[in-house]
Structures are given as C-alpha cells and as structure tokens.
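Thread: Newbie trying to understand structure tokens

Hi all, I'm a second-year student working on a class project, and my supervisor (Dr. K.) asked me to get a predicted structure for one chain before our next meeting. I've only ever worked with sequences, so writing a 3D structure as a token string is new to me. If someone could post the tokens and maybe explain what I'm looking at, I'd be very grateful. Here's the chain:
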Amino acid sequence: MLSVKLIREVLNRRDPQGFIKLGAPADEYDLEARLIFTMIEHSEHRLLTKEMIHRIVFDVFVETFGLMIAGDKQSYSDVADDIYNHFMMKVGKRNGRN
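---
Reply by user tm_fold:
Sure, no problem. This is what the structure looks like when written as tokens:
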C-alpha cells in the first residue's frame, strides 16, 4: 500500500540528490515524501500514469530545492517508476486484484 513511509523508503534508496550517500539522516526526504504522497492521494485522476507520477516527483523537488538543485527531470525516473509500481499495487488491491 502506498504511504508516506514507503515513498520515503523509495527516496532514501534512490537518493535522487545524493544526500543519503553523503551521510544525511534517514528523514532527509520526509518533506518531499509527504508532498508526493499528498499530491498522489489528492489527484483528480482515478488512475495516475507513470508520467503523471514522474511529473509530481519532479515538481516536488523543484518546489523544495529549486530548479538549479533539482536538476534534470530524467534523474527522477527511477523514483517515479518505484512509486508508480507501488501505486498500481494499491489500485489493484482496491479493485480486488492481487
């Protein structure tokens, strides 16, 4: 099931800014995880595409770090893929699929 904790785990594992690798604490991406989760949960679309989630992730990092630090949108594709896969599992369970 998609949650803030799961998104934080994805962000920490993928470490799009390289902060965790530099020794940042495990809560480094908490704000971004909460914002991404909120945007996904409150989306007007019943079924978000991988590209929509990629856009959400990138927009959150641009909002929190600015475009210069956030960098290229493509650098967030692995994060978006992981979140999308968990999101789709949630949608499947909600629709009675496993």
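A couple of things are worth pointing out once you decode it. Helices lie at 4-14, 30-41, 50-65, 67-70, 77-94. The two ends are 12 Å apart (CA to CA). Feel free to ask follow-ups in this thread.
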